[in-house]
Specification:
The structure holds two protein chains of two kinds. By secondary structure, chain A is α/β, with parallel strands linked by helices. Helix content of chain A is about 40%, strand content about 15%. An eight-stranded mixed beta sheet of chain A has the order 3-4-2-5-1-6-7-8, sandwiched between helices. Chain B contains three helices and two strands, in the order ααββα. Chain B has a two-stranded antiparallel ribbon. In chain B, a hairpin with a 4-residue loop joins strand 1 and strand 2. Classes of the chains: A alpha/beta, B alpha+beta.
Chain lengths: ~270, ~90
């Protein structure tokens, strides 16, 4: 049975696209058939973060409007053959995302894949509503920062009231992914701690992704961080999150960057 | 910064936590409330319509939450019957 996952947050710039790419790639590495779908019509970026920007011919809107078949719009990842990307349109208006059209595409993707990861745009309007509507599972990406936590709370409210599952009286399985976490600043009392965010949002924790330069390095070269440098702290954190998503029980630890002797000597911070 | 200020300093993270808890308690009740009002409006309208022909826009519902008493205000404008109109 295919699972539809929405990666959402309300606030922009917290790491939805990075996380979609990293989790999608890590899921595909387990052998599952995975598709990542960009719902950010007009501001697509998932293709760029995944390094597929020059291979986009057709997009989600073309498929919805019947201008292309689904298989024509799907781009197969160059590194993992069981990972595909369905890009968003860069030119069309987000009003082209019709409820019936999205429902049909999601139903077709459920037939072809084990995991359908929907990368939501920021906000709470039509785009995010469409991205979350068919979700079985939601990954709420949150930074340990007041505006991000507030917006995540709003999104959790919408997941509980506006999704297809909520309207059927069922629940969307919700998980918190805390990104850009800096354990040093949290310990100093300058950043919300993991427990603070969990207390406030009260949804289970899927993982903690530490603030790291590896995330930017990976997007620079268009490779999900879990593939680009699998042994780095954020990559290991995403791999753990994926194992939890698959139902494994693993203790939550905050992966730390391994510091070189020179860094330690000069007390350089990693992030 | 004097040494006293240094020790009195409250970590900014705990300020953030308190502000969020207060704000979200308020916002959750507001958004929850608007859903309740919409549902009430719909159901009250349906009941009244079984007996009277009323304009859906002429029904106003307001919920006020006070510390001690909460009030639900329902304002329905009932149209004149043909006999009343003649008179």
């Amino acid at each position: 049975m295919a699972k539809v996952v929405v990666v959402t947050s309300g606030k922009g710039g917290v790491g939805k696209t990075t996380s979609t790419a990293a989790i999608g790639a890590a899921l595909a590495q387990t052998g599952a058939k995975v598709v990542v779908v960009d719902f950010d019509v007009g501001l697509r970026n998932l293709d760029l973060v995944m390094g597929a920007e020059r291979r986009v011919v057709f997009d989600l809107i073309n498929v919805i409007q019947g201008d292309a078949k689904l298989h024509q719009a799907l781009i197969r990842d160059k590194r993992l053959e069981n990972l595909s990307i369905l890009p968003a349109s860069q030119t069309r208006d987000k009003d082209a995302l019709t409820s019936d059209g999205v429902a049909k595409v999601i139903a077709d993707l459920r037939e072809k894949f084990d995991w359908v990861l929907c990368d939501s745009p920021a906000g709470i309007e039509r785009g995010p509503a469409m991205a979350m509507h068919h979700a079985d599972i939601a990954i709420v990406v949150t930074n340990p920062e007041v505006s991000s936590v507030r917006d995540s709370d709003r999104i959790i409210g919408l997941l509980d009231s506006k999704t297809e599952r909520a309207q059927r009286g069922e629940r969307v399985e919700k998980h918190l992914l805390l990104t850009r976490y800096d354990p040093v600043r949290a310990a100093r009392g300058d950043m919300l701690k993991v427990e603070d965010v969990l207390d406030i949002l009260s949804i289970p924790l899927l993982g903690i992704i530490p603030e790291s330069q590896e995330v930017l390095k990976a997007s620079n070269v268009g490779i999900p961080v879990t593939l680009n440098n699998p042994d780095t702290a954020p990559a290991r954190a995403y791999q753990d999150a994926v194992r939890r998503l698959l139902g494994e029980k693993i203790d939550i630890v905050i992966p730390q960057e391994r510091r070189s002797f020179v860094d330690r000597l000069f007390g350089r911070r990693v992030a | 910064m004097s040494i006293f200020q240094f020790f009195r300093r409250k970590p900014t993270a705990s300020v953030a936590r308190e502000r969020l808890q207060i704000l979200l308690a308020h916002e959750r009740s507001t958004f929850g409330k608007s859903d309740l009002i919409a549902r009430l409006q719909e159901e009250i309208l349906a009941v009244i319509r079984r007996h009277l022909d009323i304009d859906p826009d002429k029904v106003q519902i307001k919920l006020d939450r006070g510390n001690h008493v909460s009030t639900l205000e329902i304002d329905v404008e009932v149209p004149l019957t043909p006999a009343e109109r003649v008179a």
